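Researcher: Here's the sequence for the chain we discussed earlier.
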Amino acid sequence: MALPAAFLSEDQFTCSICLEVFNNPISTPCGHSFCQACISCYWDGGDGAKGYQCPLCKESFRQRPELHVNRTLKEITEQFKQLSTAEVPMGGRGGGGGGVEITNSRPHPDLHLALSATQRPGEMPQTIFAEMISRFQQITSPGSPPPYPSNPQRQSLNSDRLDPPPPYSPSRRYTLSGACDSSINLPPCSIHARGLEFFCHTDNTCVCRLCVETGEHQGHHVSPARREWQIKKSQLGNAELELKDLICVRERKVVDIQNSLLEIQAAAERETDGTVSVFTKLITSLEWCQAEVLEVVEMNRRAAEHRAQGLLRELEEEIAELKRRSSSLSQLALSDDHIMCLRKFPVLSKPPHAKDWSIVCVQSELTTGIILRTVNQMMERFGEEIQKLPKACQHALLDPSVPRSEPKRRVQEYAANITLDASTAHQRLIISEDGKQVHCGERNQPVPNNPERFDRVVCVLAHQGFNSGRHYWEVEVGEKTDWDLGVASRSVNRKGKITVSPAHGYWFLSLRDQTEYAFRSEPSTSLTVGLRPCRIGIFVDYDKGLLSFYNVEARVLIYTFSDHFSDTIHAFFSPCTNKSGRNEAPLTICPVAKTE
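Model: Thanks. This is the structure I predict for it:
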């Protein structure tokens, strides 16, 4: 059993993690071997919750295997290292392919005993080779994949190492686990018809031995094709795991989108049913309103008819009386009894007491058409608002500030009893006796100039101060062209010119020139308000630093501002100047309606 030493390959003793010869080799339960330090670092860097995998075959173990040094493989590896240090070639030929060359300069003791006079140059001693095969077969399972190839960087294929295969074995070599073919079933090179045994990193293609030795790939960075395949195979495993993760993420997103679509469909059905119900109620209300208006018309007609009938009866009675008197006068004129005539003449000739009917008439407002005109005017305004409804609904869908639930139902339970503090009001402001209403007069009021009073800005604060909790109040603004509403810190400057911004203790919403809404941040934040509010709801959450403004009638959120309140805050009101009567309407604090 004399075999050339060149057929011992360093690949059989290479750790697939560090790509070096084994150092304290250990074997996993799946039959693969690694350096003890390499496999320990590999498992230490992984996620223990997902188990522990073999770097080669990817077999998973729920619990981390208790690994010990494989002493048999360690002894064989040490003997291989000693054999590979021999430097004097035998037979004048290299082993090729990175195999072990046995030399005579420093012979191993066992090797020296095994050599005989009949041993041919280039052959391994039969006793050592048999012992290595028997030991290696004890630590490897039949049919297990070959060990991971060595580092391509350490595999330099020089021309003196790439001799053609020996004549007696052109395409066959031996390993510690038995004989195997190195080039059988390999695709042939299109130029040299040799097996494509190597991989050229420079040109990223598979080449044969002659391409590397004498062909166009001479001097390129090459490595064994099988070794490169093992490296790429491990990379494919990682890429496959990444793709599976991407697939899982996208499958979950598909489920999320499908669930969202189902929710949208259910919401559309709810919105449809609710809208139909509201319009049904509206139609019922219109029918009831029509009946009420017709009843008013009928009552007026009946009243006019009743009055006319009374006048007609009175006229008929007077006419009958006058006819009787006329008949008596006619009979008296025909009588020959002069004594009776003289007696009755004074009574019959005296004009009867008669009512002046010249100023009497039957009138009704129905004849002026006032009811029809009123109905037409109301229906025109109602029709205009109804026509705005689809656009308002579209705006509500596109506006991110529109809440998805009714804000009043959330905040009205925090209703606070707010009253105005007259001691803080500007001299031109007029406060009602109950402290619920304020408007701007034409001239200053005779009030003391106390430290709490604003003397430059026409504004006023509320008595109530907040330093915790949630609070809500509503203010009627009506058709005013200008106003300011919000909150202010107790410690704000109230004398002279002031700067209104959150940094200076003012947080409020403003209206200017009927259409320009803005929150007085620094700089001001312009707002687009679809439906003009007549009543503003103000909600403040002191602990969270939130201030929100609502259109109460439309139940729409206008704006929300987030900040940090560090001082006691008071409700802030400014009706602005009356602008020669154009903005004279007051600001009125309204009672908050109870939750339905």
